[in-house]
Amino acid sequence: MLQNKFKIMDSNQISDILEKQNSFFNSHRTVDPEFRKSQLIKLKEVIKASQKEIEKALLNDLGKCEFEAFSSEIGWVIHELTLHIGNLKKWSKPKMTKPSLRSFQSFGYIYNQPLGKILIIGPFNYPFMLVFMPLIGAVSAGNVVVVKPSEFAKNTSAVIAKIVAAAFNPAHVSMVQGGLETNRELLAKRWDKIFFTGSTRVGKIVMQAAAQHLTPVVLELGGKNPVVVDRDANLKIAARRIIWGKLLNAGQTCVAPDYLFVHKEVKEELLVLMKEAIKQFFTENMEENADYPKIINDAAVSRLKGLVAESTVFCGGQANEETKYFAPTILTDVTVDSEIMKEEIFGPLLPVLSFENTDEILDYIQNREKPLSIYYFSENRDKQRDFLNKTYSGNAGINDVVLQFINMNLPFGGVGYSGMGAYHGKRSFDIFSHERSVLKTTTKFDFPLRYPPYKKLILKLIRFLLR
Description:
This protein is of the alpha/beta class. The protein has helices spanning about 10-25, 35-50, 50-60, 65-90, 130-140, 155-165, 180-190, 200-210, 235-245, 265-280, 300-310, 360-365, 380-390, 425-430, 455-465; strands at about 95, 105-115, 115-120, 145-150, 175, 195, 215-220, 225-230, 260-265, 310-315, 320, 325, 330, 350-355, 375, 395-400, 410-415, 420, 420-425, 435-440.
């Protein structure tokens, strides 16, 4: 039976963990790629053996059905583990560089070294995946790690604790549970890198704390992700894909469309098609539909209810704080000055605005903070190119939403207020490594040209070579 009570650690206990991890790291065991690989293999085995327990926890915390739990969380962690296990040896090898003219008797190499002690702070919305995805990269790169999952997803945190304890020596990877005070204690310590996923507001706090020790950070934040549907778009496909991406995890997804701009000529048709898509996906009785997730807590439900109040509800709007249900909701009569346009929604509400001139909405988007994701639906390649050239975001999708997150060959990360640093696949290995430049020079001969006394002829030669 899962226990929802947290074992809160004080500063001394956290210091004790870090002391043991320092000793473990200084033993150089994590330098060996075979050791790292064996740890990832063991983690994969433990996760696969714990799959039913993970699914149950995600159901209890967020109402995720078996399909969504596996397809949006567990499956991608297993896939990332497989990728790292299969490529770790190749990624770890020193890479030889071209010699320079000045040091032609030398050979240059780049060694990927582990950074040291890593802190990973996870969010509540994908409480399993967004802890283990960065953890895989940190272990793959040879670091020691402390993970701190969200206190709001208590059942999933309890399962994560069991998995970490079963897969790792605590001197290698430890998990700390707790709330705001625990975060403060952790951030007061010195780390070699901090990886945080969450809101921009808390991201600023993390960065401020990290600056006290000159600790580099990876911030995976959020923002208001626009989706634009032009008049030449395939409306039926656009409607289905936008609704799917918006309602994944009941809208509690950092890359979900946050608001929609649709061309005035096709607005009414798109609204009808999106309403039909909601009904097709989740039937009329959505509150009883096992495929539709719930909101994380009643405070979040209450916040969403407040955002609905000032707009016209085209469909949805129903909520139940007791069961943490919030219906898929499309809002119209929204303006750029509406309250719902001022903060990230992080729920199943989609405000819809119309436009006639694409340049106007491009100006609107560009005058706001850079979003994590941006989406554009159009069949015209010139318009697609123009849209990408005139907007800035962490990532983007053309005629689709969300899927850029799950392509492990694409680096994932934000820019500006939506974050810094990118990971996934090999980028997860890279972001937890230091590229150490090494020059190896032969002693079989020694050219005297670089030594004083300097001769004018040699200077002419150097000027020629370095022109």
